[in-house]
Amino acid sequence: MKNNNIKLMQGNEAVVEGAIAAGMRFYGGYPITPSTEIAEGSAQKLPRVGGKFIQMEDEIGGMAATIGAALTGVKAMTATSGPGFSLKQENIGYAAMAEIPCVIVNVQRHGPSTGLPTSPSQGDVMQAKWGTHGDHPVIALAPSSVKEAFDITVRAFNLAEKYRTPVILLMDEIVGHMREGIRIPDASELEIVDRKKPAGNGEDYLAYKVAEGESVPPMAGFGDGYRYHVTGLVHDESGFPVNSNAVADKLCTRLMTKIEDNIDDIVTYEELYMEDAEIVVVSYGGTARSAKSAVKKAREKGLKVGMFRPITIWPFPEKQVKEFAQKAKGIIVAELNYGQLVLEVERVVKGSSDIFHIGKVDGDIITPDEILSKIEEVI
Amino acid sequence: MDKLPHIWCPGCGHGILMRSIAQAIENLGLDKDKVCIVSGIGCSSRAPGYMDFNTLHTTHGRALAFATGVKLARPELEVIVITGDGDATAIGGNHLIHACRRNINITTIVFNNNIYGMTGGQYSPTTPTGELGTTAPYGNIDRPFNIPELAAAAGATYVARGTAYHANQLIKLVEKGIQNKGFSLIEGVSVCPTYYGRKNKKGSAVDIMKWQKDHAVDVKVAEKLSPEQLEGKFLIGEFKNATAPEYTEEYQKIIDRFTKER
């Protein structure tokens, strides 16, 4: 039977739908504009599927409760915006170190500090990557539409479970609050990944022992009969803290390589008119919608312009950007900040193409015309 | 036992407090697979690493927030939090009062050594006024928290205080805390001869234990004593044992409303 489950909804509401479809059964958070609808939707829907919602006393507690819940075996999520994302950082680092799968939604808003709370921004790109202390890999995904907010939330859970790592859904206020009609897919249409559980009995279980040829250890839930220790300290295969250079090196290197070695599985992107593009517009999230419109208008004028939209922001799609930078005369990076992802483009391109930046920090969106005039200026 | 020797200093009271928790769990016959011990950061918070349960050593001050996630997601687990005076009442003070307010079924044992031990002897929210710490070189001017009073006022349903000296009593208090269906807080007065004791000329670990013996008065005995007789003394025993709706049960009722209707 044809699925006619078409609904008009906000990006934030689609995140809740996607999360529950992916198996989310716990939400711990603290309300903050413009992410609030995610908390509200989770509060309403979770108990109806046997899940739990809790409004904690602050953003730090929201992240902590999310990790605690994930450790018992459930799929857990928290959502926030700019200032709340800053508060969550220490515990995001904990989840990376202790390898606890969870999803953190950051509906970006204007900043720094409280900024313009209801205005869009893409100013947390670097915070998503470098927000906590120490080196660890980051997976961050940026949807551009309400439909994608659904699909990419499902994917965020899948990646979190597969790689036992926190995954950041890097939304922006444009996508969070825009309304579009989307078709909610049947459960049977979705690919759902669950974390790998240990085989054998609890006596032999080493929580952080990686099987030969693999990089992610299987994870038992607290209460499943596998007693073990979890800590943010450097730990051996049993989970017990050890003060050893060799163990630290092995652990921290594995945390990096489990992501680095699977870049092709994690990185996704969208391309438009890239075959013969002399100028490439790079943009993501809500801004990519203006870019798409500008590129189409440029093509109507006969200009050879293409668009590259990273959906996976971190890890950055280095290979793809390097490749088109060899052919393009110029790259325009459009983003709602003073220049963040453009730094990554510059790092990867290493001078093989001219790079231009359109940034905006006044709380308004970047319009298609602003991008089009930049295209006409540089072509 | 293969994790011994532990990291605590000779004379530290934390081993006695940890043992009282293990003994209480044993006495109650709890299933080890269903016990989860959560801690934050600090001397006290290294205890779970030595205990054979599901153990979680979290970030500084956040033990109760992590524990809340564990307990709400899986209420059948017996969740016990081990935390220090700084962990519980300074950086984690907000989580503490809200866990008390929710009356979530978690038992918290605060290992109070009146000092920041792991960072080398700075004053904590329970360092008595006038005493010394490395960050209070001229005497502490802060007023200390009374942890049981704080917890009781915030809504905890079981509140008690024991000491490292009164080890047998402490085991009983922890047992009763675990049996309470709601948020329980037991303060365990510890011994820190290395930083608090040495800095404030309290003598050896044995001297500090003797001080606990001589100055602790059970709350029931204290009822019959005059203010003069209680001068310079501190109270131990059971301060509050009340009932109130428990958080995870209240949430389950909401789930049941939707899932049983069908």
From TrEMBL, chain A:
Residues 17-246 form the Pyruvate flavodoxin/ferredoxin oxidoreductase pyrimidine binding domain. Keywords: Oxidoreductase. InterPro entries: 2-oxoacid_oxidoreductase, PFOR_II, Pyrv_Fd/Flavodoxin_OxRdtase_N. It comes from the Bacteria. Residues 277-371 form the Pyruvate:ferredoxin oxidoreductase core domain. PANTHER family: SUBUNIT OF PYRUVATE:FLAVODOXIN OXIDOREDUCTASE, SUBUNIT OF PYRUVATE:FLAVODOXIN OXIDOREDUCTASE-RELATED. This is 2-oxoacid:acceptor oxidoreductase subunit alpha. The lineage of its organism: Bacteria, Bacillati, Bacillota, Clostridia, Eubacteriales.
From TrEMBL, chain B:
PANTHER family: 2-OXOGLUTARATE OXIDOREDUCTASE SUBUNIT KORB-RELATED (PTHR48084), 2-OXOGLUTARATE SYNTHASE SUBUNIT KORB (PTHR48084:SF1). It holds the Pfam family TPP_enzyme_C. The keyword Oxidoreductase applies. It comes from the Bacteria. This is 2-oxoacid:ferredoxin oxidoreductase subunit beta. Transmembrane segments: none annotated. Keywords: Oxidoreductase. It comes from Crassaminicella indica. The keyword Oxidoreductase applies.
